[in-house]
Design a protein that fits this description.
This protein is mainly alpha-helical. 60% of the residues lie in helices and 0% in strands. It has ten helices and no strands.
Length: 191
C-alpha cells in the first residue's frame, strides 16, 4: 500500500467511504481504482470535483476534526449575525472539549435560527457527533455513521457559496487547503 500522508485519517481504503459521497455518475470510476482516501482525493482534485473532495475529507476525518474543519472554513467568512457568532463560539468550545451537552447547546441555537446558515450546520455537525440524538432524559439514540460528516461538509459548501458566486471555486480551493492541513496534522484543534 502507498505511504499515507494523512496520519489522522483512520480509514485505510477509499471504498470504505466512497459510498457515502454520493458521487455523480461521471465521477464513479474515480472511486473504483484508488486504494486510499488520499488517492481518491487526488483523483477528485484532478477532476476539479471540489465539492466531492470536501465531502471526502469530512467523511475521512474523525468527527471532531471534521467539525473543526467546518468551523475553520465558516470562521474564515465571518459570522453574518450574532446567533452565528454564538454558535461558532459553542462549536469552538465543543472542539476543545467534545461532549453531548455542548453539542445540544449549539444545536438549540441552530434550531432557533431555522438552520439557515453555515454556522448552524457546524453546530448541527457538533451535535450529530455526540453519543445520542435523543434528549438527555430518554434512552440514547446513536447518530447514523457519517451523519456528522454530512453536516460538516454541508456547512463548508454553504460557506463556499456565501458571497459573490464567481468566488465560490476560490473559496472551495481555500477550504480544501484547510482540510488538507487538518488531515496531515499540520493544523490541529486546540485542547
Amino acid at each position: 500500500m502507498t505511504a499515507r500522508r494523512w496520519p489522522i485519517v483512520a480509514v485505510e481504503r477509499a471504498a470504505e467511504i466512497a459510498a457515502r459521497l454520493d458521487l455523480d455518475a461521471p465521477l464513479l470510476p474515480l472511486a473504483a481504482e484508488p486504494a486510499t482516501p488520499e488517492q481518491l482525493y487526488d483523483a477528485l482534485r484532478a477532476a476539479e470535483a471540489r465539492p466531492e473532495a470536501i465531502r471526502l475529507l469530512c467523511h475521512a476525518l474523525p468527527a471532531r476534526e471534521a467539525v473543526f474543519f467546518a468551523l475553520q472554513c465558516v470562521r474564515s467568512i465571518g459570522p453574518t449575525d450574532p446567533a452565528d457568532g454564538q454558535m461558532l463560539v459553542l462549536c469552538e468550545r465543543w472542539v476543545r472539549e467534545p461532549g453531548d451537552a455542548l453539542g445540544r447547546d449549539a444545536f438549540a441555537v441552530a434550531e432557533r435560527t431555522g438552520m439557515k446558515s453555515a454556522a448552524a450546520w457546524v453546530a448541527i455537525a457538533a451535535f450529530w457527533s455526540g453519543s445520542s440524538l435523543a434528549p438527555p432524559h430518554v434512552a440514547a439514540v446513536a447518530p447514523t455513521p457519517g451523519l456528522a460528516a454530512k453536516a460538516a461538509s454541508g456547512a463548508i459548501l454553504f460557506a463556499a457559496v456565501a458571497g459573490p458566486p464567481l468566488e465560490a471555486p476560490t473559496r472551495q480551493r481555500a477550504f480544501l487547503a484547510i482540510g488538507e492541513q487538518i488531515a496531515t496534522g499540520a493544523l490541529r484543534p486546540a485542547k
